Hints:
Blueprint: E1 3-7, H1 14-20, E2 25-39, E3 43-60, H2 62-72, E4 78-87, E5 90-99, H3 109-121, H4 127-137
Parallel strand pairs: 1-5
Antiparallel strand pairs: 1-3, 2-3, 4-5
Amino acid sequence: MKQICIAYGRNLDIKRMKQKCPHAKLLGKAQLYGWTIDFGKYITLIPDENKVVPVGLWQIDEIALSEIDAIEGYPNLYRRETVQIEFNNKLYNALIYLLNDPTPYALPLDYIDRLKIGYNDFNFDFKIIQQAINKHNKKPNLIVNTN
């Protein structure tokens, strides 16, 4: 069974996806309405009816689903949900991974640099990530990640 999987963070890195999830096929890019970028220990999305997030779309089958599950630490780190997205003038139900634990951690610079790779691959404006990071860094009780 083939389905669409939404990428908004590290899974925008095309080279990385080809290595870690060789059974996924890149479809293109789209806009996900009603969501905004947020961070816990890693990137995630949270509902916000006034926001839009640029996303990449991958076509996946059962093998690719298990590969992405492994990448995302499903079901412990990330959970799967289904959302609607428009692509090529059609509405699709698409799979999205969302972080389970919203506890805010300080983000390492190398993680932010890895996010830039995917944003460059898709020609997305990295300002959206930087704004989310700035907002994240102002959260009270930010935990310094020692991993």
